[in-house]
Amino acid sequence: xxxxxxxxxxxxxxxxxxxxxxxxxxxxxxxxxxxxxxxxxxxxxxxxxxxxxxxxxxxxxxxxxxxxxxxxxx
Length: 74
Hints:
- By secondary structure, this protein is an all-alpha fold.
- It is built from three helices and no strands.
- The protein has helices at about 5-20, 35-45, 55-70.
- The protein is flat, with a radius of gyration of 24 Å.
């Protein structure tokens, strides 16, 4: 699926216009509240992953390789 150059130019123009609404001495959205965004980023906890042994990693690797060979038809 390809996009026309006009559509891409319109997307870029809209993005620039939206950015300009938040800038300047008298921005349109001067009351734009960003606290909920910064709060959610600060309060977000990093994901925890279980440790995998080298044997388990090798088993996963072999399974993935065999599935790839089956799907590619080699």
